[in-house]
Amino acid sequence: MPHATIADIAAHSGLSTATVDRALNGRTGVSAINRHRVMEAARALGYLPSAGTLPMPARPARIAVLLPHMERAFFASVAATIQEHAARHPLVKSCQIVPLSGLSPEALADGIETLTQAEAVGVIATDHPKNRVALTRLIEAGVKVVTLASDLTDTPRAFYVGVDNVAAGRTAGRMVCLLTGDRAGPVAVYAGSRAFLGHQQREDAFTDYLSGHPRLTVLPTVETHEDAARLRTEVAALLRHRPNLAAIYCVGAGRSGIVEALADLPDRPAVVMHDLTASSHAWLKTGKIDAIVDQDAQRVGERALLHLLGAVAGSPPALGLKPLDPRLILPENLPQESRP
Fold first, then answer.
1. Is residue 209 within 8 Å of 249, Cβ to Cβ?
2. The pairing of beta strand 61-68 with beta strand 222-223
3. Strand, coil or helix: 331
4. Residues 326, 168: contact at Cβ < 8 Å?
5. pLDDT tens per residue, range 161-197
6. Are the beta carbons of 189 and 203 closer than 8 angstroms?
7. Among candidate residues 337, 177, 297, the one with its CA nearest the CA of residue 247
């Protein structure tokens, strides 16, 4: 069957091609009832966009995103990408970005209270029992939930959108093995917050990959709550006691503390971290770190928008459960620019 055109949709809906064009491109000047007629016709003719096998809703939907730590590059980039694509997507009626005050269950509960008529909500949250209860209640109230970057277990969420964190942790382990070569010594692991399921998965996969290594010994993980100053202090103290430190693996944020602690070392340990941002781009370019295992905030944001719309359309979760593959960034394939 040939692909439907704007003229086909106009004929099917009984509206002008100009009205159809305005409705499909999210422009003003189209009444709610005519926009609905256009979307119904577009869906019936197979014109509407899809994410793989994800059907889209028949009418523009209200979506929202709950994000903590908006001052951090990854979260800010996810939010910016969702807003950017939502602004021009014909099936998004409104997009509400709700900054959370922190990672506590109380912060998530406060954020949920601010939601206004959202039909689907994307959320980055820790895998805490109170968070699971709060999101389950939200779902029971008829709101679809899509978890982003880190999943939440035992919740009836519609989709998880994010990187395969087990694969990301194993990739980091492989890189540490390659970067250290014949060098022997301990390997330090710094986690931002183990309350994130994604961080737990990365850490477990990393330590499992290096278990039994003949020359490298993984030290107990230090949780820094993504505090750069604390991370700098922890690394400096470790180097005083372990001058033969072979590598450092940073699971979460606060990464600048590592770079600062290693700044004056003539022979620093290998450093592997996550997420390509403006800062980590500069560190990799100048040789202050060695590898980045990236979950690509822009890809997460783009896919999150489609899966939020798919959730509104009632798409079966099985269609969207495959996580994103992590990408490995080295000096040799470093993009020219990175989004702040």
1. no
2. unpaired
3. helix
4. yes
5. 999 999 999 999 999 999 999 999 999 999 987 888 9
6. yes
7. 177
Q: For strands 216-218 and 185-191, give the pairing.
A: parallel
Question: How far is residue 301 CA from its own chain's centroid?
Answer: 7
Q: Which residues pair with 64 in a beta bridge?
A: 96, 121
Q: Is 3 exposed, middle or buried (0-12, 13-18, 19+ CB in 10 A)?
A: exposed
Buried b (16+ CB within 10 A) or exposed e, 34-65: bbbbbbebbbebebbeebeebbbbbbbbbbbb
Measured between alpha carbons, how far is 32 from 319 in angstroms, rounded to an integer? 30
Q: Name the residue with tokens 């709101």.
A: 143
- SS3 category, 100: strand
> 117-156: per-residue pLDDT in tens?
899 999 999 999 999 999 999 999 999 999 999 999 888 8
Q: How many of the other CB atoms lie within 10 Å of CB of 295? A: 23
